Amino acid sequence: MKKLNIKALVSIGMLSSIAYILMLLNFPIPPFPQFLMIDFSDIPALIAALIFGPAAGVLVELIKNILDYFMTGSATGVPVGHIANFAAGILFVLPTYYVFNKLKTKKGMTFGLLVGTIFMAVIMSVLNYLIILPAYTFFLNFPAMSAPEMRTMIVTGILPFNIVKGLLISLVFMLLFTRMGTWMNKQATFKNAA
After folding, report:
1. Residue 137 is part of which domain span?
2. Residue 193 lies in a domain
3. Which residue ranges traverse the bilayer (predicted)?
4. Each residue of 71-83: pLDDT tens digit?
């Protein structure tokens, strides 16, 4: 991995700040449980990954979640939700980055966003079943859900929510990408040449 220069570090800091602000502007979607909130904070992480590489995207995801945890706290006292948000973010950003990096076209970006959405939705369903939902019930002292209850919650709530979230983020990102794609490619090319 190449070292990040000052411009990259400043850009990552700015994109992390924007991601944190976007994270605060979250909202629920009515058919899904209230604790599942949509925000567009993965967009700056995706921009960072496309311009500066995958490590930059991961850094933006990490910094925004650390900022949010220290500024707003957590209902559980430990950052279970922030860890889940970080995992969802990198599960969306990294596959999108790698697919686009292979294809380098607008169709490639669309395909990458769909792959990222599906990858995030499926892996987050597994992580919710194995780790995240049990951690919430443990730290909030709720009665543990049975396996069928957890499966129902994941299949009817978490999996479709993550698909909808990924599609909404993809839609907004494609609107930006059609306007900024050439600029982002120039920035990435300039970074690789430096």
Report:
1. 6-187
2. no
3. 6-25, 45-63, 83-100, 112-133, 153-177
4. 988 776 778 889 9
